[in-house]
Predict the 3D structure of the following.
Amino acid sequence: MKTVRVSPDLAADGEFDYRVPEHLAGTLAVGSQVRVPFGRTHRRAFVTAFPDAPACPPEKLRDIEAVLPAPPLFDGDILSLARWMARYYLCSLPAAFRAVLPAAVRREGADFLRRLRVRATEKALALPEADLAALAKRSPRQAEALVFLRAAGAEGGELADLCRRARVDRPVWDALEKKGLAEKTMGVRARSPAAPADGVVATAPPRLTEEQEAALGAIREEMASEHPRVVLLHGVTGSGKTEVYLQAIATALAKGQGAIALVPEISLTPQTQERFLSRFGGQVAVLHSRLGDGERYDEWQRIARGEARVVVGARSALFAPVRPLGLILVDEEHESAYKQEEAPRYNARDVAVQRAALCGAAVVLGSATPSLESYANALRGRYRLAEMPHRVRERAMPEVHLVDMRHERSGEGAMRLFSTPLVEAVRARLAAGEQTILFLNRRGYATALACEACGEILGCPDCSVRFTYHRARGRLVCHTCGAERAVPETCPHCGAPYRKTGVGTERIEETAQKLFPNAHIARMDSDTTARKGSHDRILGAFRRGETDILIGTQMIAKGLDFPRVTLVGVMNADAGLQMPDFRSGERTFQLLTQVAGRAGRGEVPGEVFFQTFQPDNPTLQAAAKEDYKAFWESESAMRQVFRYPPFSRLARLVFSGPSEDATQAAAKAAGARLKDIAPAGTKVLGPAAAPLAKAKGAWRFQLLVRSESADGKTSLPSLLRTFLRACPPPSGVTVTPTIDPVSFL
Ligand code: ADP
Ligand code: ZN
């Protein structure tokens, strides 16, 4: 007798063993959904394994009752992946399961029991009266039920409803099903389609450039190999990486395989979606964060049934039930958005490599500015490097000017924000009917309010963060906890008035409006896009040319492909360099390269201005030339000296709690203990106050643990797991471990 192990919701309640009755044995797989008796009730549960030795004697096991007529929503590989994530990222198994099977899918699935429909089979509808009479003699309840069922016609009815009307229980329908007289189906809810492929104009693949051809060839070779190597596709902005992705996907489809394309949430714009939809139509499922639970569930079903074989989505789309999976693409692989900042603290790029290895799929990591980690892997020969150093159609790279703002400082008012060359360049674009993007990575009006006399800066009492002044709201806002308060008239200490310092997008918009009174100006940041649809509205107007100047934060820095944009101005190119993070140079390089890449994508060549107080900074100079190799040389030398990744591996432990002293003491004790047990080559740094020393009322201290061999991959998680088990923090203090941390705030 076969046994099966199931988990009621794959997250909290543990696993239980059941017996599989003979007639259901052939229909079960890992990931199947079954109905099981559970105490005195019934539950929906997922099959997780077929154990050789059940947890208790087989005669004590109960039978599963039914297999739900829905395709498995995960498989054995995904379960292995979740187990690996729990081990590597130090989270609980339920937390890992929650990540791989979205709540919407788990919850909606439980709804199945209610949505299950049953209908008469053709055999039942054509059943001769004599047979019905015979059935009535042997099992009158089944015959009664069948009468109701035949009356319900080809559509059948909801199972729960029919049970009530025919006054029979569930097993009666199961018995009819076994006789081939009834069949269960899923009730389908009427919903608006999630990704309307209609209305999208189909595109044929263009002829590839030589560089694209070579890159695609490399990807195809790996796809054909038994143990594909990860391909790192390093292509400058506008080199046509997306087109390579599309044709690689077409290759997978031609082989009968599916593909997953991950993009950072922020770049999952209608424009991105359209590029996939126009090539693959209804075979595409788009998983974005704005999907409702029901829509998300339906898309998963569509994928599991094999109707949608191309999945495009942010981070969590990595776990979609594509079978068989031939290819995973990670666009903008360097993006920090791939790191989830709550448990499990995984990096989707790295888990993609793991998932692909489990099922033999190929992986392509694409970027104009690869992370140092991935590039190092390519140089070490672990990844295969494919390079596309030129733009398609002989489009030139934009010309980038570094504007020394130290010489502009004497200027009055607006000229302190806009340098003379930038103002002239904008005027020229306005006259020519071309478009401009102005970028500043700070929203709000003024980034601080300082007392004119004593210099006191107003900060949020719950966070070690300055208040930002928002003019539209007329209030101060904390960007960490969201707290708002009125602007005080005068400084409480010395009675002097406050001065607004530091510049945000609101202020740039106001100044631009003064400098260019006849221009149509729009602003795009998380303040102007809070309402549903506003995002598309702003970009739509820009695309149609109704807006001359688009001002915005990183929301406009990435992925936009507007051919009429010929000018990009970066208002403060130095802004990211001061962040307390060893990757601040890398982030600045990536961001500036991306922003600059928005210019000159059409016929007219582009021009870019970086306004800076450090025109000699090597990172800015490398970004100005989009010279990745120069950047790699200077940055990797620094990382090597200080033993930062990719020349080591890091883990971070953040201790937080309402008491500053107790939290610090816990971090100190943990640090001392860790130093005792750390093996050679592993260094414990700290504790130190976290750069964000207080957030939402909790004090924060951190320890960094560094494994100096680049292969410390397995050793850091196991060291920390042992440590956390043996030394839990005292009550009132929580400890949060992050492996391969991306944020150091
Ligand atoms: P990237 O993702 O590298 O920034 P894209 O894939 O967005 O580059 O390509 C830039 C532009 O060039 C897009 O408008 C795209 O449609 C176009 N393009 C890409 N490949 C080709 C090609 N082989 N022939 C003609 N146009 C192409
Ligand atoms: Zn706050």
User: Anything to note?
Assistant: Residues 229 and 345 are 25 Å apart (CA to CA). Residues 206-209, 212, 235, 237-243, 392-393, 561 surround adenosine-5'-diphosphate (ligand 1) (CB under 6 Å).
